[in-house]
Write a structure and sequence with these properties.
By secondary structure, this protein is mostly helical. The chain has ten helices and no strands.
């Protein structure tokens, strides 16, 4: 029985890996169950031992993305210690580096491609983009700026405005970074612009 369970887990993981690869190349609508099972090397009927349908495969992929993206932000519980021991430049540069390390992992890069492809077709993709990515990041940064003001490291300004002013340009540049990577083009210029944005922003808000 244990061997059977391991075999099922392995097959399920392979289905997800193949679907992730195919969806990231062709989009959800461009991939059939038959194509997934052919790439996995199983019968179509065998896929339904692991997933009810193709929709459930995509939903599982989106949930995995949520888990991975959540790792790019440090827990609020350790934020005070991080901010107290970091320079402004060091904190924001580390955040930028964390995202780069996240997106440069092949599996995460495929997650992002699917999200960009599906965001106007699939409600869950929109929810992830609007809430898990945009809102959660802005909420986190609002807390960061509140704490930085309290620590006397930056000017007394509206925290949610600071979060928006800092992050919305970054969202745009990160989208460009993702697209350049997808086309296997040089990203050095956009990376430089993101670093320049960090330093420019800090220079305008620090005391």
């Amino acid at each position: 029985m244990k061997q059977t369970d391991k075999s099922k887990i392995s097959t399920k993981d392979k289905i997800l890996d193949v679907a992730l690869d195919l969806f990231s190349q062709k989009g959800y609508m461009g991939v059939s169950v038959r194509e997934i099972t052919r790439e996995v090397g199983i019968k179509e009927s065998s896929l339904y031992n692991h997933f009810q349908n193709k929709d459930e495969i995509l939903e599982t992929i989106f949930n995995l993305f949520r888990q991975e993206f959540a790792k790019t932000l440090p827990p609020i519980t350790v934020l005070d210690d991080i901010l107290a021991s970091s320079t402004l430049e060091g904190f924001f540069e580390r955040g930028f580096q964390n995202f780069k390390e996240h997106i440069n992992q092949p599996k995460n890069e495929k997650f992002w491609r699917i999200l960009f492809i599906e965001q106007y077709r699939d409600p869950m993709a929109r929810e992830i983009f609007l809430y898990d990515i945009i809102k959660s990041t802005l909420d986190f940064l609002e807390i960061v700026f509140e704490k930085l003001i309290a620590l006397g490291k930056i000017k007394k300004m509206t925290p949610n405005l600071l979060a928006s002013e800092y992050q919305y340009p970054m969202f745009s540049m990160l989208a460009e970074y993702n697209m350049l990577r997808f086309d296997q083009k040089d990203t050095s210029d956009i990376e430089r612009k993101m670093k320049d944005h960090i330093h420019f922003f800090i220079s305008t808000v620090k005391l």
